[in-house]
Task: structure prediction
Amino acid sequence: MISLRNLIVFCFIASVSAFMAPATNSFVSRPSLQQVVAPTVPVTATRGQYSMMAKVAKFGVFSPAVFAAKVVLGDKELNKVRGKGIALHSQAITEFCQYIGTSTQLRSRIIKLAKTNGDTLGFLV
Result:
């Protein structure tokens, strides 16, 4: 599990980094003016092949905390914690929808909205 020292370092980095502007944040990498960027080649999928292209998450208020958690916990442990958090949040939404008697379509729309909000806030970096 997380040691007390790692937890304190994580909290310190998250609290300091949360108030920094994205342009001056050390977690964000920006290409310099001297850096040459190679042109992108469009990938076409042939029959039977699928193009797997992930969406790039937005940089939000909680992005520095997520980057710090990546450094402290590692990718594998962070994905476990993130998965548990998403599962608990989806369960809470489902229980709320059952309590007020909404349809399953509305519940799925609320869960999609929660994912969009999480991306905007920077949880999905």
The chain has a mean pLDDT of 76.
